[in-house]
Design brief:
heterodimer, A: mainly alpha, Rna Polymerase Sigma Factor, Chain: A, Arc Repressor Mutant, subunit A, globular, B: alpha+beta, two-stranded antiparallel sheet, 11 strands, about 25% helix, elongated
Chain lengths: ~190, ~210
């Protein structure tokens, strides 16, 4: 079913919107949650909560052209919340590793300190990604949005491990410079 | 900014980027070589012939020899900007300035070829010129090591060369491929063409050697 029709079902308060969403995107959403949590049971709970959140958010939102991204953002946030609340999950999850990698992108203290709302930071990241090559952007998104392992990325694109690692290293360094220029700091 | 703010904020990136990254695409370069190596090496081992290119040079020496093909899958191909490669190694790419390409080969891709993780210190490149549907292409591999760095190497017991503009050139033919190996000003060069006629291949070869 087309995304627009699924959104129509949400808008009409038709509960088949949830089964349609699950049929179309359930596996992908579950994979994102499990990549973050490394725990299928908690990931499934996040998936169910995702549809419930979507039910509450549509309307007013109408993600007709970006339903997967809309649902993925919800499950991503739910899974990250679970990680932060649950120390045992946090310890073993990829969350810790990727947080450390992202720390490399955050400039150290300077006089150009800037504390901003999350949506401004999102826009800053978007402006950075606009200037990345397709290859490096896709690798970055697979790693830090979908929480893919290096092996999963190499298998997806047919690249070698060193290419993926070098690409991520260079993109993180470029992002750090971009954030520094925009006045962000840890 | 907190340590995990960035990771959370990435959740709000443009949906177009998420969609683009969700499309499963294999790197065509790697696939092409893998398929080539998996399927063609046993045939190549017995079928390679040295090409009798009499038009290339009056000194051409046609002959048939046993050819050994070595798989070198440990090498990785990183696509890079041509300008980046030119800036790093201007002397390398000067030999390609006057390359004579068949009509329609307007696409150019440049690859840095690496073995292991220490890519920054390596100077092995492959430049691929191709037409719109990739039915014809010219792949030029350049290396400053003692061997051609590529996905595979060719070895022959023969010391027979074709002489073009006073340069010793080894030439092979297999199906619609022409492959030549030679050293130009200390740079090891391999030219592989796919879908080119003999005349087109010779024109490419001569234009590079004469420029060098």
């Amino acid at each position: 079913m087309e995304d627009s029709k699924i959104v129509d079902l949400y808008l009409a308060r038709d509960e088949s919107a949830i089964t349609s969403s699950a049929d179309k995107y359930g596996q992908k959403l579950l994979r994102i949650a499990n990549n973050i949590l490394d725990n299928w049971q908690t990931a499934e709970e996040c998936e169910n909560d995702t549809y419930f959140e979507a039910w509450k958010l549509i309307p007013p939102h109408e993600p007709r052209t970006y339903l997967f991204a809309f649902l993925a953002k919800i499950i991503r946030n739910l899974a990250l919340d679970q990680c932060r609340k649950n120390n045992s999950l946090k310890r073993k999850a990829i969350y810790n590793q990727l947080t450390r990698e992202m720390e490399e992108c955050i400039p150290s203290s300077s006089d150009t300190a800037k504390e901003v709302a999350g949506n401004q930071l999102e826009e800053t990241i978007n402006s950075f990604l606009r200037n990345c090559s397709d290859d490096s952007r896709n690798i970055f998104v697979r790693r830090y949005y979908f929480f893919d392992s290096i092996d999963e990325i190499t298998n997806r694109y047919g690249y070698g491990k060193s290419k993926v690692k070098v690409s991520l290293l260079r993109t993180r360094e470029a992002l750090r410079k971009h954030l520094e220029k925009e006045g962000y700091l840890l | 900014m907190k340590k995990d703010d960035l990771l959370i904020a990435i959740g709000g990136i443009d949906p177009a980027y998420i969609k683009a990254a969700d499309v499963e695409i294999k790197h065509p370069k790697i696939i092409k070589w893998n398929y080539f190596l998996a399927g063609a090496i046993p045939i190549i081992l017995v079928a390679f012939l040295i090409l009798p290119i009499t038009k290339a040079s009056k000194n051409a020496i046609p002959a048939e020899r046993d050819i050994k093909v070595n798989n070198k899958t440990s090498y990785e191909f990183f696509e890079i900007q041509r300008e980046e490669a030119n800036d790093a190694n201007p002397e390398y790419f000067s030999i390609l300035e006057k390359i004579v390409l068949p009509k329609g080969l307007s696409k150019t891709n440049t690859y840095l070829i690496c073995s292991g993780n220490d890519c920054d210190s390596q100077n092995n490149y492959q430049i691929v010129y191709s037409n719109a549907d990739d039915s014809k292409n010219v792949m030029v591999s350049l290396s400053d090591t003692n061997e051609i760095i590529d996905s595979y190497s060719l070895e022959s017991n023969s010391d027979v060369y074709t002489i073009i503009a006073d340069h010793k050139v080894k030439i092979f033919k297999y199906e619609n491929k022409y492959i030549s190996l030679f050293n130009l000003n200390g740079i090891n060069v391999k030219i592989e063409t796919n879908g080119l006629t003999e005349e087109e291949f010779v024109a490419v070869l001569e234009s590079i050697i004469q420029e060098g």
